[in-house]
Design goal:
Layout (H helix, E strand, L loop, with lengths): L1 H6 L4 H13 L9 H4 L7 H8 L1 H9 L5 H8 L21 H16 L10 H11 L6 H30 L3 H4 L11 H15 L6 E8 L2 E7 L13 E2 L3 H7 L7 E6 L2 E11 L5 E10 L22 E5 L12
Antiparallel strand pairs: 1-2, 1-6, 2-3, 4-5, 4-7, 5-6
Length: about 325
């Protein structure tokens, strides 16, 4: 929602509210049994009726938190542009503007993520479906704006992917393998590699963090981190729960999805590259994190640590095109 709102030229203070309401737009599903929500097969008519109640329930739950326009956007995010949606069968511009935007974003998220009843669609399949349904399910103007936002995101992801490859080239795999605890931060090689990564970061704003990770047995740990203060640095040896794409790269597999992080300082995009030893085996992974969009008008957001460092937040993968080998000039 933040990226689409930015593309539509909505004011920064509104984008922050939109991000918050987007997090909560499906909260009404707490009133629907997991047996229905996670069902692998087709839903019965009675089960569909239960599902169709969730927008209204969500709207009532968030009513004390947001203004009437945003509450209406939650209630009507499953309306269709042709009037065949629910809960009220609104059509065209009778559907609140924010609801029309949320419908596109919500459906893209649903298509691009794996569900119990079907696999995720590819980036190309998602784009084709958005275009096919423009004018029927979706507001065509919202689809056009969202496609522009996706193209902008894809270009930024290509840049951070390329920087992740450059960052990996600055790290000596053999030395990296010796760094496993906070005590190893006193080694001169640690300071040298972190210093080189910081220089790369500083030369490519708005990149904020470059970090390396390794597996020690079954445990993923942070190794190198370009955080500048105790509040935003992960120390060598700190345990880390890797999200899916990082885990894939550490396991020697290709990363297939765009990794986005959403939290209280904005939306971030992450590039990931493997670190290989002399035999070509993957021994670590390097991530480069940069804002996916501007900072929502808050000056501190440009310098604050991303929301997952060190506090927990939501880190998720969404299909945004296959990860090809990044070009150094991307």
């Amino acid at each position: 929602m933040t990226m689409l709102g930015r593309e539509l030229g909505w004011p920064s203070e509104r984008l922050e509210e939109l991000q918050n309401v987007a997090f909560l737009h499906d909260i009404g599903k707490i009133g629907v049994s997991d047996r229905v929500l996670l069902k692998a097969g087709p839903l019965t008519s009675e089960e569909w009726e239960l599902v169709r109640q969730h927008p209204g329930i969500s709207a009532e739950i968030v009513r004390p938190l947001f203004d009437s326009e945003l509450v209406a956007s939650v209630r009507h995010h499953h309306e269709r542009f042709d009037g065949k949606g629910y809960p009220d069968g609104l059509a065209g511009e009778a559907i609140p503007l924010v609801a029309r935007a949320m419908c596109v974003v919500d459906c893209y998220d649903a298509m691009s993520c794996r569900r119990p009843y079907r696999p995720a669609l590819s980036y190309r399949q998602c784009l084709a479906e958005l275009r096919r349904c423009a004018g029927t399910q979706f507001d065509p103007e919202m689809v056009a704006a969202f496609l522009r936002a996706l193209r902008r995101l894809r270009r930024r992801r290509a840049r951070v992917d390329a920087l992740a490859v450059q960052a990996a080239a600055l790290i000596d795999p053999a030395t990296h393998a010796l760094l496993r605890s906070r005590a190893d931060e006193t080694r001169p090689q640690y300071a040298e590699m972190v210093g080189a990564l910081r220089q790369l970061r500083d030369a490519h704003p708005p990149v904020r963090f470059i970090t390396s990770y390794a597996m020690v047995g079954d445990q993923c740990i942070t190794v190198l981190d370009t955080g500048d203060t105790e509040s935003d640095v992960s120390h060598c040896g700190d345990p880390w729960l890797p999200e899916d794409e990082l885990a894939r790269v550490l396991a020697g597999e290709s990363s297939l999805a765009n990794v986005l992080i959403a939290g209280d300082v904005g939306v971030w995009v992450s590039g990931i590259a493997p670190l290989r030893d002399a035999q070509g085996a993957v021994v670590a992974a390097v991530t480069v994190d940069a804002p996916a969009v501007e900072s929502l008008g808050r000056p501190e957001a440009a310098t604050a640590h991303p929301p997952w460092r060190p506090c927990s937040s939501q880190r998720r993968s969404a299909s945004a095109g296959p990860r090809s080998r990044p070009s150094p000039t991307a």
